[in-house]
Every structure is written in structure tokens, then in C-alpha cells.
Amino acid sequence: MVNMTLHLLTPPFFQLVPLVLLAFIVLRTLLKAIPSSRKAAVAASPPGNTGLPLIGETLAFLAAYNSSRGVYDFVRIRHLRYGRCFKTSILGCTHVFVSSTEVAKTLLGSESPDFTKRYIRSIAELLGHQSLLCSSHEQHKFIRRHISSTFKLEAMDSTIKKFDELVVDTLRSWEKMEQILVLRDALKVTFNAICKMLISIEDEHELEILRNDIFEVSEAMLAFPLKLPGTRFYRALKARERIMNRLRKMIDLRKRELECHEDFLQDLLKKDESCNNDSLTDEQIMDNILTLIIAGQVTTASSIAWMVKYLDENQEILEKLRALYLELPCKDSASPFGFEVLNLMPYAIKIVKESLRMASIVSWFPRVALKDCEIEGFKIRKGWIVNVNARSVHYDPMAYDEPFKFNPSRFDEDSKPYSFMAFGIGGRICMGMNLAKAMMLVFLHRLITTYRYKVIEADTSLQKGAMFPMLRNGCPIAVTPVTKEPN
Ligand code: HEM
């Protein structure tokens, strides 16, 4: 031992000291150069700030939700700060946001058994615990099977025809108007068409009452779940109660055979009679009618408004589309569009797809971890909510060349697998995907072949307190009929 110590003090060791120091400095510099996300991989937990105990970053989340930059701004800022995988804490839950096609494939595409879908509690309380959007794996399979069998092609065909009639009527009313709010009218026509398909309501007064209640509910989806009179959440719960009472009365009338319609509700009730314990309960039917209206109306109407705006900003694309439309045989309102609109014009479909990519209406998809696991090299604890950040994948230059440019022709070629997520992926893919696309195509066709239009105010601020990115100014436009060319 003494010999060894002496050996360390001999001249060759002293010669090594500068080398060891140099190696130490190089290593430290290299470690500093590693991006923070990799360092966190070593630390095993995703980078990010979980804020104060219990409150976490809830206040920052709600501030973004109530601002005209929109709730996604909360995610965007942290994505820039921490990289493509980060964690935060909202309303008492740890949330991880991850932007990667590989994770999208694992979590959504192959329906990993380690994860299940779960929205924050306030959403489940408003939509109902039997809602398809909030239900557990097994319950989801059961409900989706029932709903998709009634969500059939013929029903959707007549919904698209109804939607077309409504659009033609609405566009007719625009002729004498100086300014039109595209979002407002799109919300109305999508709502009316979906309500007709689901529950056959057509009376304007009844529709308006329901529309106001649905609006209260969807406005509060991400609000702080405070059940005190006067709060947004409380008002939404009251609106939900009124909607449920209305639906309960409808079910009762139909069960007593005092009313009968050809619609989604009747289909589900028919099944109820025939296959007893394999059928949906009244609660399941009611929660899911509310879910379908909320999932379908604002998303589709908002996408329509963004599409109108993007086209206005890209006049050459708009003119190319108009020329292609005018080559098609004229479609009059006496024979409305049905499902064939989906195959009518490939260029219009690419415009719809590109608008959906850029608008990324559903910006992230939440899934809860059922056990401890790893994602992107980071440890994920059981109970954490992992959100696939679809919007950031849609704007990733590795997936889309010049992602901020509106370029429908990018879809001439297939996009990178799992990089287009406007309607989600896998077993939870949007049930109304084809209906939504068809409604966007019908609106586009009718608008472009009836009018030339100009967006009056190019503001891109978003509506405060909205679950989905909606233009705050409602996309105001002025129109001139296509036959009367502007001076
Ligand atoms: C442009 C319009 C629409 C967009 C962008 C959209 C987007 C989405 C997305 C991204 C999901 C999956 C969410 C996830 O995996 O977490 C979804 C699910 C869903 N959508 Fe849509 N949607 C639209 C229109 C519609 C319409 C018109 C309906 C029906 C009337 C509808 C009904 C549903 C339902 C029921 C689900 C839940 C499916 C399930 O969990 O199994 N959506 N939608």
C-alpha cells in the first residue's frame, strides 16, 4: 500500500496530471453541449416544470385557454423550451406532451395495451361518463360497435344531402349582405344537419334552444371544474341537464310509439328492443348523442372557416380550384350532393386535407398510462397522461416540407406514415371523418361556384375559452356572385 502511494508521487504520474485535467474539461464541455432533453433521458423523467404542489401549471394552462392565442399556446411554448417530449402538471395530473410519429404509431396506431384514452375530469362530467370519448377500453369497444353500425352510409348520405340544401339556402341569403361571418353560418348548418341525422329536430325554435345549450357545454370543456353558481362550468352542467331532459323525453315518446323517425336515435332504440342485454342503455344513448353533436359541429364548422381563410390567402390555388369546378357538369340545388362528393374531385380533397393539417383542430390526443413504461427514452409513471402532440407533428419540417406554406399539392404523394393525424389514428379514429370531409367538400363546392369572396379582416386571433382553435373574428367575408365579375 505504502509502495503504491509512493508510486503515485513518482514523476510519470505528475506528467499525466495535465492530460487528466484536459480530459475532464473536454468531457464537461461535451456534456454541456448535449441538448437538455437528452440529459433528462439520463435523469429518466421527461424535462419540464410540474409547478407548485397540486396546482402545478394549471394557472398558466387556464391563462392560455382564456387568451386569444388559444390553449395550444401553453403546449407550444413548452415544446420550444424543452423539446419534443416534456412534462407538466394540470388540474392535479401529470401530463406528458410528445411530438413524434413513432409514439403516435405506438400509442394510437397499435392501440398499446399500456395506455387508454382519458380526457380530463371536467370533460367526462360534461359529456357524461358513458361518452365514447371518455370511456374505458372495453366499454369503448362495446359502444363504438353499436354506434358505428347505425352510423351507416345511407344515413350519412341523406345527412350530406340535407347539409347541401342548408348550404344552398344559406348562400342564397348572402347575396344582399355586405359582410358574412363564415364561422357563424357554418356552425349553424353543421349543427342543423347533425341534429337532423341524430334526432330529427328541424323546428328552428327547438334547434336554437338546443344550440345554445350545446354551446354552453362545449365552451366549458376545458374550464376550471368549479361547481359554483355563476361559473362557466356550473352553467354548462345546467345546460347538460336540460339537454338530457330533452333527450329523455324524446326516448320516452318513441318507446311509447307516440313518435317515430328515421334517424340514429330510432336505430339505437330498435336494437334495444331486439337484442336486450347487448344493447345500449338510455344513458349511453343520451351521452353519446351529446358527444356526437359536440364532436361533430364545432370541429367541422371551424375547419370550414379556416379553409375559407387559407384559400383567400392563396388566390392562385383558389383560381385553379374554381377553374376545375367549372369544368364539372353544373350541379343544381334540385339534386343535392350525396356521398359521391367524396370522389368528385381529387384536388378539392387535397385542399380539405391541407386545411385540416394546418388548422389541426384537435391539437393533441390524450392517453393515460396504465403502468410504468418508457416513451422516447423517458420514464412514464402509471397514471400519467401522455398527449400525442398532433399539431407539432403537422408542422414538423421532417414530416412536411415548408410546413407553414398552404400547399395542397403536397398530398400528390403519400405523407410520411403517422404524420397526418387530423382525424386521429387507430381504434379511436374519428367516427365522423367521412361525414366531416364531405361537409367541407360540399361547402367548398357551393361557395366557389356561387361567389367570389374576399376575407375582410385577416386577424388570426383565436376565440378565448374555446376547446378547438376557432377564428375569433368568425372569418368575415364579402361576396360577389360569380356571374357578376367585380369591376
Ligand atoms: C373536421 C371535423 C372533425 C375533426 C377535425 C375531428 C377530429 C377527431 C379526432 C382527432 C378524433 C380522435 C381523438 C383521439 O384519438 O383522441 C375524433 C374522434 C371522434 N370524432 Fe371527430 N372530428 C371531426 C368531425 C366529426 C364529426 C362530424 C363527428 C360526428 C358527427 C365526429 C365524431 C367523433 C367521435 C364520436 C369520436 C370518438 C371516436 C372514438 O373515441 O372511438 N367527428 N375526431
Automatic annotation (TrEMBL):
Belongs to the cytochrome P450 family. The keyword Heme applies. The chain crosses the membrane at residues 12-31. Keywords: Heme, Iron, Membrane, Metal-binding, Monooxygenase, Oxidoreductase, Transmembrane, Transmembrane helix. Pfam families: p450. Heme binds at residue 430. GO terms for biological process: brassinosteroid biosynthetic process; brassinosteroid homeostasis; sterol metabolic process. Signal peptide: none annotated. GO terms for molecular function: heme binding; iron ion binding; monooxygenase activity; oxidoreductase activity, acting on paired donors, with incorporation or reduction of molecular oxygen. PROSITE patterns: CYTOCHROME_P450. Its cofactor is heme. This is Abscisic acid 8'-hydroxylase 4 isoform X2.
